[in-house]
Amino acid sequence: MPRYSEERRAAVVAKLLPPQNLSPQEVAEQEGLSLATVYKWRQEARAKGRCLSDADAQGAKDWSSKDRFAAVLETAALNAEETAEYGRQRGLYPEQLAAWREDCEQAGRLAQLARRGEATELKQQRLRIRDLERELQRKNMALAETAALLTLSKKAQAIWGDVA
What is the CATH number of the domain that holds 42? Predict the structure, then answer.
């Protein structure tokens, strides 16, 4: 059985959110909890889908890219009024959410371009490997021919002696 009730945990996690926006250190001191406990509860809340910043300071610039992406997903189907309410609850401006959405869209395009570049590079490497293997095979055949000629010349010399 958990040492603390779910209501207590929810109340502590709520202090990390707007409008209070307290740091985990401040919440731990106020509640008489260890800092590790507050971090663990924040992590558990994030795992359940709550949009909490990873940073100790709760400014929009401190949100991780994962949290920003989650906020973009959460607001994707909302109208302007609902988006503004969402932002007020989390201490964000609609412009920040719009910028994050643009960043997510650009990241998708950049990832696609990167994958294309990697595919092109991989194709070039395969062609180079094929060419090098052909060159190696050609040189191995030339080496084998040279070895055969050398062996034949030694045998001819042994049979007929120096003809020169």
Answer: 1.10.10
